[in-house]
Known about the structure:
This protein is mainly alpha-helical. It has helices at 23-43, 50-57, 61-68, 71-83, 95-111, 116-124, 128-155, 165-182, 191-204. Helix 2 crosses helix 3 (61-68) and helix 5 (95-111) runs parallel beside helix 8. One of its GO terms (molecular function) is DNA-binding transcription factor activity. Residues 49-68 bind DNA.
Amino acid sequence: MTDPPDTTPDTTPDTTPDRRPGGRTARIRAQVLDAVRAELAEGGHERLTMEGVATRAGVHRATVYRRWRDVGGLLVDVIDAAGEIDWQPPDTGSLRGDLTALNREIQESLVVRPSPALALMAASFHSPQAARAQTRLWADRYAQCEVLVERAVERGELPARQVDARSLLIAATAPLYHQLVLLRAEPDPRLPEQAARAAVLAAAAGAFFVPREADT
């Protein structure tokens, strides 16, 4: 026997996008995305449902279905919302200091419990939509952080040759994900600075230089 159709009146204000800053649309979106994060933290992707999100958010489920369509749509919007945060890369005055500060931010985001960053990474393995959104977010963050390398070249910390900034950034940050996500090791307060120092030494030695045509 199937469940009877839901005939409960939808009293939630219309969520059609409007031009007012804040407003009903922004409030409802914030409620729903907060609910998605909480549901992910408690039960993971496997237990994330449209109905559960609607109940936790205090929003009629018809509204959630109408705007986000399915769980994949909810995950995409949560990830997109992370990219909307007005975040700026560290500026400590040195490449090593910048990378260390960046690594400390990453470590903090991975060790806090519950960790929204970890929950979204796990969910992206179950949803192609979320995986694409996660890739966009990471690409944007790496692009933002390329300024760290540009400033290092301007300060003379790195030789004035073209440096593959993304490769340098990946080398500096990868040990955090390896230790905390793959190995699930206890956080090491020394690791952010150690990984940054290793990447800077490798960069100074030419590990991330883009070969010139004459060199190939």
